[in-house]
Design brief:
The structure holds two protein chains of two kinds. By secondary structure, chain A is mostly helical. Chain A contains 15 helices and two strands. A two-stranded antiparallel ribbon of chain A has the order 1-2. Chain A is globular and about 75 Å long. By secondary structure, chain B is mainly alpha-helical. Chain B is built from twelve helices and no strands. Classes of the chains: A mainly alpha, B mainly alpha. Chains A and B meet through α1, α2, α5, α6 and α7 of A and α1, α4, α5, α6 and α7 of B.
Chain lengths: ~300, ~280
């Protein structure tokens, strides 16, 4: 490893290694201190909190009591936590899957569009991508509005019974709306990234394959997909991570009229338990659980980034 | 031979493309359109598709509410404080990582990567407790502390790429001409980094400006709300009553972000996936 860096340094004209210089460490002090204060310390504190009885009484001055694994035991035996976890995983997989499907599909189609249509599509994607989360939510709430929403108007217009239909009342329909919003917001990133990767696909190879009689699907499978595989992996993993931690969309839709208990995902559950309900010890335990889940899901991504890093 | 399928492929692609354009653009259009409509047009069972004869009344109403102006002030303060601190901290860290080889460099980079994966929901309970102990709940400083940690990893990550993009040979040449290492850095490399700093700063601005979750946790008092919080409560309270005003507020919040985003978008996209810009 050290040898490789030295060689790489020499080739790239990197600065010589100043031996035992304290300068780089000094340069890192502000960043490390800031991250340590706002992330490191809370992480430690959260672990401690999760082993304590910390409810409203403690919030008002009573000393917290160490109760070992009691919070975790309570949680694991609470079927509600497993319902929320399952719901979160399901929501995450459905949303990540749809986003990838639509995003990759659009990227592939973009190669075959006329230039003017492609520019239209890219403009639309950029706009959707740039929209702030909260503005996106208010607009979609307005589109799905019970009384004056365009969606109910259009559905009624084609003869369906959607007059005065309330979209957020039933959990399934609530999650349908949430999925529409999350996918709408997330597709642009996937489409753009995959489209950029597609420009790396060798045209010569594709043409050669076409002359040899390979149909569009064969070319897709044997030439296009292998080339963009690494990008697909990274984008897919990022999407899973992002969709596991949706909070804003669910929270705001809940405030707009969803039934909280039937629509909680992990993030909103932690919030309602701790900040809303004052059960800080329990909330900390769920948060630790969520962190562990994230670590398990992201390990492959971090490993692949590390490999890339070392190869550089 | 391949002509016919190619043509039908193009037609399919174009049709689906136009459809995708409509689906992506319509909500944005609808936000702007509704923001110009008055109450009667909003509450008309038949939607008003084009804001002919619309007015700026909704915008006037928004600007006349104290909460909006107050939230705007808080948002600007938090965002500026966050960017300035994050950029300064990230800049020196990026220089350390890309211009020096030292023990622990790799672990630092790995830590940055890992931190970016941490969901804010996984930590906000204890961040809330910490700020509570420090008496910083409902303060601009308190929210900025957690925001800095939110944008810092990505900022360092991106700046590192920009610093590494300036060839060290340029500095070496300046050093041969008699500059010290510090002088060489500030005279040669620093000016070349300006665009990178601006792009990264804008990206930090967008993140802090849009952030909702941590603001909700830290700013519990009504007079300390940021713009996204203000907008979300605007919907709760007036649900079904003032969509025109809500859309005007949304447009006001979205426009600066969209403009900034279009400026820096190209520079930032690569950072996320290829992440490992060399350094």
């Amino acid at each position: 490893m050290t040898d490789m860096t030295v060689k790489a340094d020499a080739e790239l004209g990197r600065p010589p290694k100043p031996r035992r210089s304290v300068l780089p460490y000094l340069f890192l002090v502000p960043a490390v201190a800031a991250l340590g204060l706002a992330l490191g310390y809370p992480l430690v504190r959260q672990l401690m909190l999760s082993f304590q009885e910390f409810g409203l009484q403690q919030q008002f001055g009573k000393a917290p009591e160490w109760i070992g694994l009691q919070n975790y035991r309570d949680l694991v035996t609470d079927p509600y936590l497993w319902r929320v976890t399952l719901r979160s995983l399901l929501f995450c997989l459905v949303n990540a899957g749809l986003t990838l499907l639509i995003g990759v599909g659009l990227a592939l189609l973009m190669r075959h569009m006329s230039k003017s249509v492609r520019i239209l599509v890219q403009t639309g994607l950029l706009l959707a991508w740039a929209m702030p989360v909260v503005a996106t939510l208010t607009v979609w709430e307005w589109l799905f509005d019970t009384q004056y929403g365009v969606i109910n108007y259009l559905l009624t217009g084609i003869g369906l019974d959607y007059e005065g239909h309330s979209w957020l009342l039933q959990p399934l329909s609530f999650f349908f709306v949430a999925t529409v919003i999350v996918v709408w917001m997330s597709v642009p990133f996937v489409a753009f990234t995959v489209y950029a990767a597609l420009t790396q696909v060798s045209e010569d190879m594709e043409e050669a394959a076409e002359i040899d009689g390979a149909g569009p699907f064969q070319r897709l499978r044997h030439i296009v997909l292998p080339t963009i595989r690494p990008v697909l992996l990274v984008v897919g993993l990022l999407q899973i991570i992002w969709d596991l931690r949706v909070f804003t969309q669910i929270y705001i839709l809940q405030e707009a009229g969803g039934t909280t208990r039937d629509t909680n995902l992990l993030g909103t559950y932690i919030y309602r338990l701790g900040i809303g309900g004052g059960k800080f010890g329990m909330a900390a335990a769920v948060a630790v659980f969520m962190l562990v889940l994230t670590v398990i899901l992201t390990a492959p991504y971090v490993r692949s980034m590390l490999k890339q890093e070392k190869e550089d | 031979m391949a002509r016919a399928p190619r043509r039908s492929l193009r037609i399919t692609a174009n049709t689906l493309g136009v459809l995708a354009f409509l689906v992506t653009v319509f909500p944005v259009y609808w936000m702007v359109n509704s923001s110009f409509l008055d109450r009667n047009e909003i509450r008309n069972p038949v939607p008003t598709w084009v804001p002919f004869g619309g007015s700026l009344d909704n915008y006037r109403t928004v600007f006349e509410t104290d909460q909006f102006v107050n939230a705007l002030k808080i948002s600007l303060m938090v965002t500026l404080l966050t960017i300035v601190v994050a950029l300064a901290f990230a800049f020196v860290a990026a220089v350390a990582v890309s211009r020096f080889r030292f023990r622990g460099r790799m672990s630092f980079i790995v830590t940055l990567l890992v931190i970016q994966m941490i969901p804010v929901e996984g930590l906000f309970i204890s961040q809330y407790k910490m700020l509570e102990t420090m008496d910083l709940l409902n303060t601009v400083v308190g929210l900025s502390i957690v925001y800095v940690s939110l944008v810092l990893p990505f900022t360092i990550w991106t700046l590192r790429g920009f610093v590494a993009g300036v060839p060290y040979e340029l500095e070496e040449a300046a050093m041969m001409d008699g500059c010290s290492r510090t002088q060489a850095f500030f005279r040669i490399t620093f000016p070349l980094l300006a665009p990178g700093l601006v792009a990264t700063g804008v990206f930090g601005f967008i993140q802090a400006w849009n952030e909702f979750t941590l603001a909700l946790v830290v700013m519990t008092r009504e007079d300390q709300r940021t713009l996204p919080l203000w907008l979300s409560t605007f919907t709760d309270v007036n649900r079904g009553t003032d969509w025109g005003g809500i859309m005007a507020g949304s447009t006001l919040i979205a426009v600066p972000v969209i403009v900034f985003f279009l400026i820096v978008q190209g520079r930032m996209v690569s950072g996320l996936t290829s992440g490992a810009v060399k350094g």
